Structure formats: structure tokens, C-alpha cells
Amino acid sequence: MAEHSSGFVLKYRRSSPICMRLLITGGAGFIGSHFIRHIIGNYPNDQVINLDKLTYAGNLENVADIADHPHYRFVKGDITDKKLVDRLASEADVIVNFAAETHVDRSIEDATPFLTTNIIGTQVLMEAALRHKHARFFHISTDEVYGDSLESRFVESSPLRPNSPYAASKAAAEHLVASYRRTYDLPTLVTRCSNNYGPNQYPEKLVPFFVKKLMAGEKVPVYKDGLNIRDWLHVTDHCKAIDLVLRKGKIGEIYNIGAHNEHTNLEITKRILRILGFSEDRIEFVKDRPGHDVRYPIDATKIMKELGWKPTVNFDKGFAETVEWLRNKFTPKVHVRNIRIHRKARQRA
Ligand code: NAD
């Protein structure tokens, strides 16, 4: 065993220099796939196992570019599978737990898979981390555990008052993580991040869902008056923050992550329409989501001051690039083919 300059306890293997062996769960999803790419791209000696069940939200295309990397391995499986998790944990020094059921609307329809994956799954991972004396158990949480607030900003010591079954399952998982820290001395880290945007997000979340609908010629359904507020952060900035907490964060601590970049859902919708060149007639106001949180005002001062993190992606630019990426993804292929055929015919004429 050796101590890294970051204070991280790492295992040497004879043939290779120091490396971190990460078991990353949910790495075929939106944020997990970006995080794996960040690790593989920045730490040539680190080893990554990606354990993902490939639910409807998991997509191996999100990690296709690194699938053959010698330091990367994909395992299809469930984080509630004790045997499998134990075997994979024996090959790792740290677990970073992204795996979760994540869509609020689905949790309102049926909370059961949220409780199973988000709570039981977290417990199974922590048991394995304890058994194999991991150096870190990193739990990726969300700002939604705080519930909503119109005025005061949430700091890490603010009470958890989740409002949706999704948020409640994430808060329950966090309480379990805190209990394992206190009772078993598990070396835990927790982050609570605001809304992410960027490529690879499953098209049920606002930005990809709306672009997909617009590209299909449909209207976009905005809940109630669209005045619910979210704080938007580029997914790569989130990944850099996680990396920093992983290597330099203080064991047992919780860190908020957010850009202090708040916009109403209506502003975000109009921004998407502007970028794609559609008029505001495409907006359709629909009945509100039950229990809809109004605002999650995250205070990210702690990670900024203590670890020196700050967002680097300019919102105007990062958001426009994301929408363009989604436009390409959701442009009907047949439409593109017809345009090409049409162009060729014109060139021949
Ligand atoms: P996502 O829905 O895109 O991906 C979740 C991944 O977990 C999928 O690949 C899915 O196949 C996998 N998964 C689900 N159940 C599993 C199980 N039982 N075993 C193994 N794998 C399983 O989610 P995301 O948006 O990338 O979010 C990742 C994490 O970040 C979640 O824990 C979420 O709560 C948190 N988070 C997300 C946001 C956001 O804006 N998307 C913000 C803050 C925090």
C-alpha cells in the first residue's frame, strides 16, 4: 500500500506504477459515462470497472469510444446482486456510485425500483466496500434531497426534506451512507449536484426530451407556468468536481456542487427554441407535476473554497453546443437522406 500525494491510499501492483482501481456503477448512463471518460483520459494508470444493469437509461453507445481501452472493463449487472458486487469490489480500491433510478416522473408512477436500486443497491455496495477495506466509498447524490426553497440557499448542513419519491430514495440512501460512516467507519464521500446538461442524456429529461420532440415536429410540454427554477451545470464540470472530491475531499464530508446559474424552465425552453430556430408557439403549458419542487438554490461555496473547484464551461456556449449535439442526434435520418438525395438530383440537373 502507498499514500498518494492527494492523501489517497493506493495499492501498488508489481508491473505498474501507482494507480487507482475504480468500481464505477451506472457508467453507461449520462453522468457516469462522462466521468469514466474523464478518468480514462486523465489518469493513464487508473483502472475502471463499469458495472451497469443497462436499464432503459443505460446505453453502451455512451462509452463506445473507450470500450476497448486496456484499463476499462464493462460488466453488465445489478448493484443489488451481492455476489457480483463482492467479486468486483475485490478488484477495486474505491467505489463511485452513480447507479440509480433517476427520473422523478417515473418515481411518481412507481417508486419500487427507486427504493430497490437507490437504497438497497447503495447498501450492498457499502457492505462490499467494508469487506474489501476500500479507501473510499463515493456516493453521488443530488440537490433534490433538500426539497425546495424560495429564499435561503442550501448549505451542506441544511435539513433534508425531499418531496418526490426519487428524492426521498436518494435522501434515504444518504442517511444510510452517514450511518455506515459513523457505525462502521466507512470512508465515505458524498456530493449533491444541481441539474446537469450535456451530451448523452436519456431523452426523458427536459433538454433532450424537448429537442427530440421539436425535431419530430411536436410541441413541448411545459409544466404549469414554467416558472420552476433549476441551477444548470455542464456535465464535464460536474465530473471535474467529483474527481477533485475523490482525490482531495475530506473523508466523511458532503460537498454541494452547483454553478450558481439559475434559470426558470420557461427560460430554458425558450433558449432551446431560439437555438433551433422555432417560434414560441411550440410551447404547450400542461398540468403541473404532483409535488413539483419550485427551486433548489444550492450554495457551492464549500467545494469552491476548500477544494478550489469552479465551473469552467460558459453556459451560453455549453448549452448551445449541447442543443446542437441533440439536434444532430434527433434529426430524422430519413429526412437527412431525402435532403441528400434532393441535393444530388439538383447537382445532376
Ligand atoms: P441516468 O439515469 O442517465 O443513468 C443511470 C445509470 O444507472 C444507467 O446507466 C442505468 O442503466 C444504471 N442503473 C440503474 N439501475 C441500476 C442497477 N440496479 N444496477 C446497476 N446499474 C443500474 O442517470 P444520471 O443522470 O447519469 O445520474 C447519475 C447519478 O447522478 C444518479 O445517482 C443521480 O441521482 C445523480 N444526479 C444526477 C443529476 C442530473 O442532472 N442528471 C444531478 C444530480 C445528481
What does this entry look like structurally?
With 349 residues, the chain is of the alpha/beta class. It has one domain (2-201, 234-261, 295-313): NAD(P)-binding Rossmann-like Domain (Rossmann fold, 3-Layer(aba) Sandwich), CATH 3.40.50. Helices cover 41% and strands 17% of the residues. It is built from eleven helices and 14 strands. The protein has helices at residues 30-42, 82-89, 104-109, 112-131, 165-184, 206-215, 235-248, 265-276, 301-307, 315-330, 333-348; strands at 2-3, 9-10, 21-25, 47-52, 72-76, 94-97, 136-142, 188-193, 195-197, 220-223, 229-234, 254-257, 262-264, 283-286. The strands form four sheets. It has a seven-stranded parallel β-sheet with strand order 5-4-3-6-7-8-12, with helices on both faces. Helix 5 links the parallel strand 7 and strand 8. Helix 6 runs parallel beside helix 8 (265-276). The longest helix is centred in the middle third of the chain and has 20 residues, at 112-131. The chain is globular. It starts with a strand and ends with a helix. Residues 25-26, 28-32, 51-55, 57-58, 78-80, 98-102, 117, 121, 140, 142, 170, 193, 195-196, 202 line the site of nicotinamide-adenine-dinucleotide. Nicotinamide-adenine-dinucleotide is lined by residues 25-26, 28-32, 51-55, 57-58, 78-80, 98-102, 117, 121, 140, 142, 170, 193, 195-196, 202.
Concise account of the structure shown:
The protein is 41% helix and 17% strand. With 349 residues, the protein is of the alpha/beta class. Nicotinamide-adenine-dinucleotide binds at residues 25-26, 28-32, 51-55, 57-58, 78-80, 98-102, 117, 121, 140, 142, 170, 193, 195-196, 202.
